[in-house]
Specification:
The complex is a heterodimer of chains A (about 525) and B (about 525).
Chain A: H1 3-11, E1 23-25, H2 28-35, E2 47-54, H3 58-69, E3 75-78, E4 90-92, E5 97-99, E6 104-106, H4 113-121, E7 125-128, E8 134-136, E9 147-151, E10 154-157, H5 167-185, H6 206-209, H7 216-222, H8 228-242, H9 251-259, E11 273-275, H10 281-291, E12 296-297, E13 300-308, E14 311-318, E15 323-334, H11 338-344, E16 356-366, E17 380-383, E18 391-393, E19 406-413, H12 419-428, H13 431-445, E20 453-466, H14 472-477, E21 485-487, H15 498-516
Parallel strand pairs in A: 1-20, 2-3, 2-15, 3-12, 9-17, 15-21
Antiparallel strand pairs in A: 4-5, 6-11, 7-8, 9-10, 13-14, 14-15, 16-19, 16-20, 17-18, 18-19
Chain B: H1 2-5, H2 12-47, H3 50-71, H4 79-104, H5 111-137, H6 143-196, H7 204-236, E1 239-245, E2 250-256, E3 259-264, E4 267-271, H8 275-287, E5 295-300, H9 305-311, E6 318-323, H10 326-334, H11 336-341, E7 351-355, H12 358-364, E8 369-375, H13 382-385, H14 390-399, E9 400-409, H15 417-429, E10 433-441, E11 445-453, H16 474-477, H17 499-512
Parallel strand pairs in B: 5-6, 5-8, 6-7, 8-9
Antiparallel strand pairs in B: 1-2, 2-3, 3-4, 9-11, 10-11
Helix pairs in contact in B: 2-3, 2-4, 2-5, 2-6, 3-5, 4-5, 4-6, 4-7, 6-7, 8-9, 15-17
The chains are: A alpha/beta (about 525), B alpha/beta (about 525).
Membrane topology (chain B): Multi-pass membrane protein
Function (chain B): Catalyzes the irreversible transfer of a propylamine group from the amino donor S-adenosylmethioninamine (decarboxy-AdoMet) to putrescine (1,4-diaminobutane) to yield spermidine.
Protein name (chain B): Polyamine aminopropyltransferase
Amino acid sequence: MMATGALGGCASAPAYGPFAGQLLGADVARGHALRDGRLPAASGLERRIPLLVLGGGVAGLAAGWRLREAGFDDFALLELEREAGGNARAGANAQTAFPWGAHYLPVPGKEAVALRHMLRQFGMITGEDASGAPIYDPYQLCADLEERLLWRGEWQEGLYPSTYLSAQDKAQRDRFTAAMEAFRKAIGRDGRTAFASPSRLSSADPAYTALDGISFAAWLAGQGFNSAPLLAYVRYACRDDYGCEPEAVSAWAGIHYFAGRRGWASDGAGESVLTWPEGNARLARLMAGRVGAERIHSNTSVLRVARDGADVLVDAHDHASGHTQRWRARAVVLAMPDFVARHVATDFAGVKGLTYAPWVVANVAVSRLPSGDGVPLAWDNVAAGSESLGYVVATHQTRSNGEAVGVLTWYNALSRGDPAAERRAMLARSLPQWQAIVAQDLLAMNPELEGLIERIDVWRWGHAMVRPTVGLRAALAGVAQNGPVFRAHSDLCGLSLFEEAHDSGVQAAERAMGWLGHVHEALA
Amino acid sequence: MAEETAPASKSPASKSHAAILLLSVLVVATCGLIYELLAGTLASYLLGDSVTQFSTVIGSYLFAMGVGSFLSRYVRGDEMGVFIRVEIMIAMLGGWSAAGLFLAFPMAADFRILLYALVLAIGVLVGLEIPLLIRILRGRFAFRNLVSNVLTYDYVGALIASLAFPLVLVPRLGMIRTGMVFGLANVAVAVALLWVLRRERRVVVDMLAAVLVAGSLVAGLFLGERIQRAAEIAYYGEGVIYARSTPYQRLVLARRGGDLRLYLNGNLQFSSRDEYRYHEALVWPVLGRVAHPSRVLVLGGGDGLAAREILRDSRVAHVDLVDLDPEMTRMFRQIPQLSALNQGSLSNPRLKVTNADAFRWARSAKGQYDAILVDFPDPTDYALGKLYTVSFYREVARLLAPQGVMVVQSTSPMVAPRSYWTVAQTLEAAGLSTRGYHAYVPSFGEWGYTLAAHQPPVMAANLPAGLRFLNATSEPLMFDFPPDMARRPVPVNRLDNQALVRSFSEEWAKYEG
């Protein structure tokens, strides 16, 4: 019977895979062809247009939405990928849609005027209560149970552990909460909110901007925060929103995560988030609908952006037709991420010190949704013991039968090492390797999923988001916004968030309209 | 005995002993691994978390085998006799292990203690086998060949077991009968050895024990199916006549005497003795308050019992019934005992069944209904809780005709008064007027309902003659709430707060202690 020893050894190391699935991601070949100058030069007639929006991520779409709102219709939006949406794209299977990137929007605060205006137009805000607070469509607010954490073998509600905490852990948690609450209420000497959302509206008071000069980890240490559960929670927050470690994130950005959200809604829904099965692709597609398909030129690489007298010349290659077109625009909203813009719009982009976090997102089709000891399945499910950021249930908002087939969207920010090295390592891994990593992580959280995983599709984001590193905010403050090229992107505020990209797009659109003499009422 | 026979290795008798003993290595190796796999699989099946269960079961089993091997040193003399008795004991314990664990699971206060006690006991016995066999065989082979032979058969047995278990045994025999079959194999080794030794030693007592164990295992083999059911009986406290797991729930039908009961995920849905009280109270206060209930909607109610009441009303021209689980509606349409109970309501041409998630169905449904009956399971989890939210009630209100009336099954106002009144509060937040009422249903206790309509529901109801529970006198009494169930301030149940799921679990946990 000694044979059982060997068998026991095998049973504890299950094989993960093979699984059906696909490896997805930004079109690397397209990006590199562009970088290496391998695309043909412009030919044929120039096209004249008053305004071009370059880039169809959230910032570009928000710019397009804002232009159309103001009755400015004569523009085109050029997008590199097959579909606009940037980080807010989504996929679907027979059961449900699911996100490939950002999956929620916190309920906006009073400062986010343009964003709330848009949400009302999209039917997400349905009215106002007696106090004037927006009433949100309940189907679009995240349904209870919102979050759960696997902590010491049991799922519990929320993302901060509530059990097995020492008196010191609890004291530090309370002190941290109080400190963030104080920052949330803080007003700078210039009369502006210390940590505003959109961040553009934040106070310039050095008492707060100085926090950009140190890391969040250093700030925490300086304040005497050393409780392991607290630091783990903070690390999760930094990686989830910024794709990097507290050691890299500036204290300003770290605090902004906890103090910048002041959601304004009826029925106490201000703390909630808006979410959809397809994630923020819901918003991106609605914006694209407003821009109009006839204005969106997808599969189009911008090769060069250059001044020519008062005009801007834009060479753009259409991958479908193989033709490179020269556009002559009177103004441009440059809504591409800086790592692309710095190669094609050399006179207008290239911010020193900008780095990007690589991410991996997997959509996992399961024949039965997971459960586990403790509180039941939530929208967002995170394990304290895992390096991943957990998984979100795509069907959370749409169904009342909790146990049927579904899709889990698994997230991981590759934040441990140097971003470039992590990016190379990410691209070097094969689909089966990524699938095994995802499956192993999911099964560690939910062993009952064994045999229920039907498919794992993996999306590799080489440059998923800008990293709000120490000193970046100061560096970005020096980026000039002069016509005729107006920049729009969340890269420009260093926080890769929907509300930031939206604000940036709206603001650039308004400046461009001002430049072109189109009268409009300011939203931003 | 072994001491005496050891030198006489050339005799034909001892040759057949050796052959039987080597064959028995193969058998005991296979059996030993099967019991281990059974315990691991059963523990995963009953307790969940297969990684933990398998690894702790395998670990303790291997450790117990080590203990058995260690203990073998205390066997001095008569290794053969001890070996035979060990085989009989393994046959008994191992053979009955799966059946015993299944039966004990619903009854045992701490199932894990029982599980590991059994795993350790079998492990110790199995651990004794190989050392004893090596000692029994030591004179018959050169040591080089002995070790080689024993370990070869041991490993081959392990391979047989590990392949046969998942591929053949569990799918074909099930876990209970697999245990019985391998118990028989163990006891067969004992019987074969006793038979060849019958001239050399007294075997009567051992043989008798072996035959008894074998008899019990054969009986168990034939009763395997019934034992499986008995295990559910122990859980439900009555005779399970039908059990089925669907992608959505575990359906169990149980009968005791004339009483037929349906359980969904272990929660009682109805008892045939008093379901007429529940369903008359659900249906007639609504239909009795609608002048022309031509089109009726039932949400939930896949048992067809509410539909039975509705279809008795000749004014009703069409009923739409929306239930999540196709297996549920199929069962209540096709199984004769069940379709007798609902009087074939689910096959009635005036009724249309739609199998869909009502939460999604309601959002896209069109048309108006004169009466709507909302009869979902209690809000025990966040998924079911969505069907009790203001968002859902707004959709249902949209489907309710201007003069229509609806009713919502609203849990017990006695056990869970906050939860009960949350339903009314939430219906009102959806723009409806409500009136609560309650009825005593013995198998449930004091049960609550909520009427809702675009105008305040009228006081008087026109009830048909011939109802068993309700008449013009008893119906108005249902609307009176004594102080312990009286209305109290409660929040509105919304998708993003699920106040009802939270209060429901608190109130029922407190009530059930």
